[in-house]
Amino acid sequence: xxxxxxxxxxxxxxxxxxxxxxxxxxxxxxxxxxxxxxxxxxxxxxxxxxxxxxxxxxxxxxxxxxxxxxxxxxxxxxxxxxxxxxxxxxxxxxxxxxxxxxxxxxxxxxxxxxxxxxxxxxxxxxxxxxxxxxxxxxxxxxxxxxxxxxxxxxxxxxxxxxxxxxxxxxxxxxxxxxxxxxxxxxxxxxxxxxxxxxxxxxxxxxxxxxxxxxxxxxxxxxxxxxxxxxxxxxxxxxxxxxxxxxxxxxxxxxxxxxxx
Length: 260
Ligand SMILES: Nc1ncnc2c1ncn2[C@@H]1O[C@H](COP(=O)(O)OP(=O)(O)OP(=O)(O)O)[C@@H](O)[C@H]1O
Ligand SMILES: [Mg+2]
Hints:
By secondary structure, the protein is an alpha/beta fold. It has helices spanning 49-57, 96-106, 112-124, 140-153, 170-186, 198-204, 226-229, 233-236, 240-259; strands spanning 7-17, 22-33, 38-42, 64-69, 72-73, 81-84, 158-162, 190-194, 207-211, 218-223.
């Protein structure tokens, strides 16, 4: 199944209001993501990245502005959005296999083919022999990989990933970057990745967006050079152009954090 997915964020702002305080998390975010584009978001802790993903997913209603998916408000659009939350929310009473197929079940898409896909992905993540275990028997990094499989198997047309590799050791992270990159490129998925890792943002994306400190505004947009986009993330990380862009973004992020 091939679905066109273009995402437009229009003047998005969000203020959390509690009895004690009003906190403006993001302010006036304007971004367009074209079909098949992979965009990463970098920014200091607390600048509103998770808030932004929650708004895009439709879980949170912004104070002002619009999220348009293929020209239609995200809440009226029945497009299938995959959202991998910053904390993994696996169901503790279900096995790993049941956890990764629960979305498919709900959607009525559990077939021998999708079951096989789920098992293959689990295998590729190095967790094949864990399928009958429960989440509490797995490490944090393993649970994060299970959450990733759970999202990938439902084959959403838009994927939102909130620091999906943060609990992984470096080796595993590099492997999974390649795996996710290949999976998404092959299927021309539109994706939005939040990360703290500048290198990951450059190696995986078409575009890197740098947000300012809270309230998160767009500080700068960096298109990733074509020669890097053609490479797998692991190879991109070895390229001289990668190092150059890394330095530029790193300095910019340092300045933002110094202003806090
Ligand atoms: N439910 C909420 N109620 C009130 N304030 C909130 C709520 N959720 C987040 N905030 C505040 O909004 C701001 C942005 O939070 P958010 O979680 O979006 O940041 P983030 O960029 O994802 O941070 P991190 O990089 O640490 O994950 C923070 O100041 C946070 O304290
Ligand atoms: Mg966050």
